[in-house]
Design brief:
It is a single chain. By secondary structure, the protein is α+β, with helices and mostly antiparallel strands. It is built from 4 helices and 11 strands. It has helices spanning 3-11, 86-89, 97-117, 201-226, and strands at 24-25, 33-34, 38-42, 48-51, 62-65, 74-75, 131-143, 161-163, 166-176, 182-191, 196-198. Strand 2 and strand 3 (38-42) form a beta hairpin. Helix 3 runs parallel beside helix 4. The two termini are 21 Å apart.
């Protein structure tokens, strides 16, 4: 295994709680391998991760961040059994164009802040031999309350309180910008808080930004370890 790949795996365990087991790449005839060469990583900090055991991540010092994919997001509806509102049950759970634009903007801002402003990884728009491409797709949203609009929340209901804003599901791939070869792939989910609070469009976007920032920090931590920062 290349040293830089080991560093990448080590970074996968970085979190508030240190993993009790070292990350390991599955090998042998029973190894789970996808996309022709990505091996499943056990004991990573994310929900699911795969990596090319021969990838040399140390060659990448700049990054292309693709716009967040938000065109096929599954909306997992909250449990509405305790709601007396037919409007809430029949709410329109599709993301509007404005919603998608806000999500893309928030993700781009988090990546720019963590990688370029707080890190040492310039964001660029052109492929090169030292440029890593990061491509993220938002796969699902699981809100804890109906959409914050008149059609979905009963008139006179007042403030809605929930235990956090919900859960965000994401897939992130890391590829060589010139060849397009995928070097690593992670799937993860995050919930911002288990504390009860007001649920509205502002608080929900704040939660999403917090989660995006957390993923961006994770990517910066991996690159920092690989480059010895």
């Amino acid at each position: 295994m290349r040293y830089t790949t080991y560093c990448l795996l080590t970074a996968l365990t970085l979190s508030g709680c240190i993993s009790v087991s070292e990350p390991t790449i599955q090998k042998g005839p029973d190894a789970e391998i996808i996309l022709g060469g990505l091996h499943r990583v056990d004991n990573s900090r994310v929900a699911l991760s795969y990596v090319d055991p021969n990838a040399d991540f140390s060659r990448y010092s700049r990054v292309i961040v693709d716009p967040l994919g938000v065109d096929n997001v599954e909306i997992i509806k909250p449990n509405m059994r305790n709601s007396a509102s037919n409007r809430a049950r029949n709410a329109n759970w599709e993301l509007s164009d404005a919603d998608k634009a806000k999500l893309r903007e928030a993700f781009a801002a988090s990546m720019r802040t963590q990688l370029e402003e707080k890190g040492d990884y310039p964001l660029v728009g052109q492929a090169d031999d030292d440029v890593l491409r990061v491509t993220a797709v938002l796969t699902a949203l699981e809100p804890t309350a109906p959409p914050d609009d008149f059609q979905s929340r009963s008139l006179g209901r007042g403030r809605v309180y929930t235990e956090g804003g919900g859960t965000v599901y994401i897939t992130i791939s890391f590829s060589d910008s010139e060849s397009g070869e995928i070097l690593a792939l992670v799937k993860d989910e995050k919930s911002n808080s288990a504390m009860w609070g007001v649920n509205n469009s502002v608080s929900n976007m704040g939660d999403v930004k917090f989660m995006f920032n957390s993923w961006a920090k994770m990517i910066r931590a991996r690159l920092d370890i690989i480059h010895g920062h």
